[in-house]
Amino acid sequence: MERLVVATTAVAHFFCIFLIFSVAKADGDFTGELNIHRRSPVNGLCAQLIAPSGYPCEEHTIQTKDGYLLGLQRVSSSGESFEGQRGFPVLLQHGLFMSGDAWFLDSIDQSLGFILADRGFDVWVGNVRGTRWSHGHTSLSEKDKEFWDWSWEELALYDLAEMIHFVNLVTNSKIFVVGHSQGTIMSLAAFTQPDIVKMVEAAALLCPISYLEHISAPFVHRIVNMHLDRVILAMGIHQLNFKSDVGAYILDSICDGHVDCNDLLTSITGENCCFNNSRVDFYLEYEPHPSSSKNLNHLFQMIRKGTFAKYDYGIWKNLKQYGQLKPPEFDLSRIPESLPLWMAYGGNDALADVMDVQHTLKDLQSKPELLYLEKYGHIDFLLSVNAKEDVFDSMIAFFKSWRRSSSI
Ligand SMILES: *[C@@H]1O[C@H](CO)[C@@H](O)[C@H](O)[C@H]1NC(C)=O
Fold first, then answer.
1. CA of 385 to the centre of ligand 1 (A)
2. Domain chopping of the chain, boundaries
3. Is the confidence at residue 37, as pLDDT, over 50?
4. N or C: fewer beta carbons within 10 Å in the chain?
5. pLDDT beyond 80 at 33
């Protein structure tokens, strides 16, 4: 049982990777407009985790083009009312198997969400489809396999796009975007789309990922080699939920005799120097959140092929879907040179490997500001007890420098 818990934590953090998006054309492509309703606050992220620490927090629900209902929270500094002057808007985009709660899991002086609110930012918290805070669809139920028919490509082009558009609309301002892990994949993909990137003032990427070719985590190699992604899809498992019996069974069978699952977190993410082990039970009350098997499959395609491209359906369906044999790549050189980027990456990160980060940098037109922390692993960038001093202070200084030069 203990092994399972450790395994679950690890997987929770495993793909905490990515970000978002890219949709579209004109504003008419977004459904956000003011098609919003307030959620019952009782079971929301605000009521559960943010408001109890004394931070004013609003729940919003937005609808994506393909019908998913996403929860979005707006947080301000404690002691300030919403009537007061708002700071510059910043949208936080979590990683794989996580959700918006990831930014609030440590104490108020350690967690990025609280720190940004205290520093005067207008904090918006994103939650992708399928997570606990974004459950729902206009016509599908989570029991339908169609509900889980998406990967990070949709998280980028629909979910992130819609969130950015909504915050842009409500605040009447360009916005800052922060992504961790999968949140950075989503962001980089989205920023290649002119109609999304035009709403973004600057972005900060923690554990930036676009290429996954050099991933060094032994556990990941094992499940890629055993084709876990294809096996579970073939078994008809479309929702990946490690809190379910099926999810626990999958983990147990992977660990069985092959990987040291007592140290699974390290096997997956790399050695994390600085997070607080005695808080793991608390983290597990929130993580991991569900994702889709198709998303895992898409990520594994990137590992196998070394590309940053749309989902590969195989040649025949690619022809039908894309009009070409191979899926189109996301072209990082299309991200405008004028978009200020800040990136933090670690020498012990087994998921956002230094070589892959360098590949990303080579493809970009701009020269992002870089913060390299030799001892940091994948989780440290979110949950290190020293993350404020090591990472967040520098990120905030970057944002403040761009805010001064912005027109708003
Ligand atoms: C680690 O977590 C425990 C339990 O929540 C807490 O009491 C302690 O202050 C934390 N340590 C640090 C350095 O944040």
1. 8
2. 2-19+33-405
3. no
4. N
5. no
Name which of 98, 86, 164 is nearest 133 in CA terms.
98
Q: What is the mean pLDDT of residues 58-68?
A: 97
Whether the predicted pLDDT of 210 surpasses 60: yes
Nearest to 344 by CA among 287, 402, 387, 299: 387
* The architecture CATH gives domain 2-19+33-405: 3-Layer(aba) Sandwich (3.40)
Contact 11, 242 (CB under 8 A): yes
Q: How far apart are CA 119 and CA 403, in angstroms?
A: 13
Angle, CA of 117, 381 and 284, to the nearest 5°: 85
pTM, entire model: 0.89
Q: For 288, which DSSP code?
A: P
pLDDT tens profile 299-324: 999 999 999 999 999 999 999 999 99
The pLDDT tens digits for 135-157 are: 799 999 999 999 999 999 999 99
**Contact assessment for residue 357 and residue 218, using Cβ atoms and an 8 Å cutoff:** no
| 108 Cβ closer than 6 Å to some ligand 1 atom | no
With 0-12 / 13-18 / 19 or more C-beta atoms within 10 angstroms meaning exposed / middle / buried, residue 354 is: middle
Rama region for 290: left / alpha / beta (φ>0; ψ in -120 to 50; rest) = beta
Judged against a pLDDT cut of 60, whether residue 386 lies above it is answered with yes
Nearest CA to ligand 1 atom 10: 276
> Which residue is catalytic, options 99, 134, 181, 187?
181
